[in-house]
Amino acid sequence: MELTRQWCDNLHCPAYGQMEQGNVRVFSHVERRLYCICCGRTWSMDKGTAYEGLRSSHATVCRALAHLSERNSLRATARLTHHSVNTVLDWLERGGRQAAELSEHLIQGLHISYAQVDELWTFVKKTATPLTR
Predict the structure, then answer these.
(1) 116 falls within a domain
(2) Is the domain of 75 the same as that of 100?
């Protein structure tokens, strides 16, 4: 993780919202926590992501979402990852929510529909050279 791209989000901190100030340090690699040397506040590296609050590893969640994207059922994915169906469903909901937020952030100001975006990506995939695939 690039610490220079992190900032303290404590409203009462003198370094609030400032990047590349050197005030953010690693608090715990094991628990994946950061802290601000100005105010002493700690927070999770996963804050604001689909992984926030999960006990499973990122690799396990990504593997499960990859199984689902390959059209495996929830039960098959649960068997393959050795987790319950409800856990896999929670990961799917979190991943879907994060993907929707990212799409909303990246596709703003284009004034096109999701169908048009899908058609655009279909065109890009068809016209891609074999080296870029």
Answers:
(1) no
(2) yes
CA–CA dist 68, 133 (Å, integer):
22
Q: Domain count for the chain, please give it.
A: 2
For residue range 4-45, list pLDDT tens digits in order. 778 888 888 888 888 887 888 888 887 788 888 888 888 888
Calpha distance 9→39 (Å, rounded): 10
**Do 25 and 64 have their domain in common?**
no
Query: Where does the chain have alpha helices with state H?
Result: 58-69, 74-81, 85-106, 114-127
Let me know how many helices (H) and strands (E) the chain has, helices first.
4, 3
User: How many residues are present in the chain?
Assistant: 133
Query: Within this chain, do residues 56 and 93 fall inside the same structural domain, yes or no?
Result: yes
60-81 as b/e, with b when 16 or more CB fall inside 10 Å? Answer: bbeebbebbeeebebeebbeeb
